[in-house]
Specification:
The complex is a heterodimer. Chain A is mostly beta strands. In chain A, the strands form 2 sheets. In chain A, strands 2, 4, 5, 6, 9, 10 and 11 form a 7-stranded mixed β-sheet that branches. In chain A, strands 1-3-8-7 form a 4-stranded antiparallel β-sheet, with no helix packed on it. The chains are: A mainly beta, B mainly beta. Chains A and B meet through β4, β5, β9 and β10 of A and β4, β5, β9 and β10 of B.
Chain lengths: 111, 117
C-alpha cells in the first residue's frame, strides 16, 4: 500500500525550513527519500533503516519512528537548489525488493 | 556505462501497437526495477528483478505488460496492444548489492516517455 506524504506542496523563501512527512499503514524495514527535479530522474537523498541507522545526504536530515511507521525529512536553511518533488519510498520486506513510493511533495524555494 | 541508460527516450505510438522499452543498468548491479510515472503523479512500482529472476511481478498493470532480463544485465519492458492510459514515463532503476556503503540506493535512468495516440 502506498505511503502517504504531507504536505502535497510547499513554497518556501530561501533560508526557511521545511518538514516533509511520510506515513505508512504497514510495518517498515526502511524508508528511502528521493528528490526529482522537473524533467529529470529521481536522485537518492537518504535511507533510514530499522534500528536507527541513517545513510545519505550531508545537509538533509530525517527521522524514522518505527513504532508509528512514520518518517520525516527535514530541510533546513533551504536553498534554491532544493526545489523539486520529494518522494518517500517504503520497504516492508527487508530486502528492498519492492520500494513503494508516495505521491510526492512538491517543494518550491523562491528568493 | 556510468549510469542507468534507457532507450528510447521518447516513443510515440498508435493505440494497439506493441512497444519495447530497454534498460541498461549500472554494471555489476544485480537488482533492477521498473516504475511508471504518469503526468504529475508518483512512482508506480511495476516489477523487480534480482539477477534474471523476477520474484515480484505484482505491479504489472495487466497481462499486456511483460518484462525480461537477460545475462543479469539488460532488461526489456514490453507493452502489447498499447492503450492511451499506458502513456507515461517509464523509469528503470538499478541497485548494487545490499550491505554496500549506501545500502539500498537506487540509481534511476532518465526514463522513456511513451505517448499512445
Amino acid at each position: 500500500q502506498q505511503p502517504v506524504q504531507s504536505p502535497q506542496a510547499v513554497i518556501l523563501r530561501e533560508g526557511e525550513d521545511a518538514v516533509i512527512n511520510c506515513s505508512s499503514s504497514k510495518a517498515l524495514y526502511s524508508v528511502h527519500w528521493y528528490r526529482q527535479k522537473h524533467g529529470e530522474a529521481p536522485v537518492f537523498l537518504m535511507i533510514l533503516l530499522k534500528g536507527g541507522e541513517q545513510k545519505g545526504h550531508e545537509k538533509i536530515s530525517a527521522s524514522f519512528n518505527e513504532k508509528k511507521q512514520q518518517s520525516s525529512l527535514y530541510l533546513t536553511a533551504s536553498q534554491l537548489s532544493y526545489s523539486g518533488t520529494y518522494f518517500c519510498g517504503t520497504d516492508v520486506t527487508g530486502t528492498a525488493s519492492k520500494l513503494t513510493f508516495g505521491t510526492g511533495t512538491r517543494l518550491q524555494v523562491t528568493l | 556505462g556510468a549510469g542507468v541508460s534507457q532507450s528510447p527516450s521518447n516513443k510515440v505510438t498508435e493505440k494497439g501497437k506493441d512497444v519495447e522499452l530497454r534498460c541498461d543498468p549500472i554494471s555489476g548491479h544485480t537488482a533492477l526495477y521498473w516504475y511508471r510515472q504518469s503526468l504529475g503523479q508518483g512512482l508506480e512500482f511495476l516489477i523487480y528483478f534480482q539477477g534474471n529472476s523476477a520474484p515480484d511481478k505484482s505491479g504489472l498493470p495487466s497481462d499486456r505488460f511483460s518484462a525480461e532480463r537477460t545475462g543479469g544485465s539488460v532488461s526489456t519492458l514490453t507493452i502489447q496492444r498499447t492503450q492511451q492510459e499506458d502513456s507515461a514515463v517509464y523509469l528503470c532503476a538499478s541497485r548494487g548489492p545490499l550491505g554496500g556503503p549506501v545500502t539500498g540506493e537506487l540509481f534511476f535512468g532518465e526514463g522513456s516517455r511513451l505517448t499512445v495516440l
